[in-house]
Design brief:
Helix content is 29%, strand content 38%. By secondary structure, it is of the alpha+beta class. It has one domain: Alpha-Beta Complex (Ribosomal Protein L22, Chain A). The strands form two sheets. A three-stranded antiparallel sheet has the order 1-6-5. Strands 2-4-3 form a three-stranded antiparallel sheet.
């Protein structure tokens, strides 16, 4: 079930679940590609995967350094998150091509959510320490630009 409500037009969808990456980083990467056309988003993500350009952060910016490349705005280099979003975007583009859409596509929905939280216990002598293993989910929907 996707969280995007479509207007009965043909769209390309892709979803990736149970990702072992920070959902906060994935949220920021998705926010940077939402509303862009597919060629711009692909080039942005491919550069972000190799660490060539930073990703602008808007929501999770507590104690975050500012980047000269972003004009003094906060950002990071989330390579792992960008790799997963790039993989999902390529899948959405392939889905759109299979449905007969043209190559001139726009990203109408790109979202990430926290999926599962699994507690982990590590025995340390007489004390146990508890940590949490979190997984994430990505959804991307592309549509023909008019």
């Amino acid at each position: 079930m996707y969280s995007y409500k479509s207007d009965n037009s043909i769209v390309g969808k892709a979803r990736l679940e149970d990702i072992d990456a920070s959902f906060k980083d994935i949220v920021e990467v998705c926010a940077n590609i939402k509303g862009k056309n597919s060629f711009d988003a692909l080039s942005l993500l491919e550069k972000a995967v190799i660490g060539e350009i930073p990703i602008l952060y808007k929501k999770y910016i507590t104690k975050l350094a500012h980047r000269k490349e972003l004009g003094g705005k906060p950002g990071r280099y989330p390579k792992k998150a960008a790799k997963f979003v790039l993989e999902t975007l390529k899948s959405a583009l392939a889905s759109a091509r299979a449905k007969g859409l043209s190559d001139d596509l726009i990203i109408v929905h790109a979202a990430a959510n926290k999926k599962n939280i699994f507690p982990r216990l590590a025995p340390k002598g007489g004390k146990r320490s508890r940590s949490y293993y979190e997984t994430a989910r990505i959804e991307i929907i592309v549509k023909e630009s008019i």
